[in-house]
Amino acid sequence: MAKIDDSVKKKVPELRFKGFTDEWEQRKLGEVSSSYSGGTPSAGNKSYYGGNIPFIRSAEINSDRTELFLTIKGMNASSAKMVETGDILYALYGATSGEVGISQINGAINQAILSIKPNEGYNSQFIMQWLKLQKQKIVDKYLQGGQGNLSGSIVKDLQVKFPHYDEQENIGTFFKRLDDIITLHQLKLDLLKEQKKGFLQKMFA
Q1: What confidence tens digit (pLDDT) does each residue in 117-147 have?
Q2: Do 37 and 126 share a domain, yes or no?
Q3: Which residue in 64, 67, 150, 204 is deepest, having the highest Cβ count within 10 Å?
Q4: Could you give the number of structural domains in the chain?
């Protein structure tokens, strides 16, 4: 990576991969992607649940499994919508507002999740990492005291600076690799904590 001269910092980031010199272009997220949220079938109708369609909820946007499954009947009776592996999932409601991830599975989403599908020339990992970086700023600006919800309109109006697609891809891949390493070490840390707990229980009278 190479540092950028102070005279051009405003139009490009301070640190870049070698070989990239073009200025970044600012666009509204809604101009470079399509997006939609889903819905929830009536919880009182048992025939809507227990099928084979994973029903992704806000806390599951980074997971490869779901607690609930819908039937085709449940899908047809509600505004739940399907997403595909690789789609950006953005949490709009409640304690998870502003959380973002890349869908690990094909499944249905409810009204608390916004699915974002970048247009050609725009990279999902790059957009997801930008949204992750901006989470606190977005929450502070649009959720007074942590209350209320975000909306599709708010997300579509977010101003994002984009480099050429190749640079987006490099940046997205770089941060995905870091996230994967962090996840791996977190799993190892969790395992060590459990082992320590077991030793403590067995080695003290």
Answers
A1: 999 999 999 999 999 999 999 999 998 766 7
A2: yes
A3: 150
A4: 2
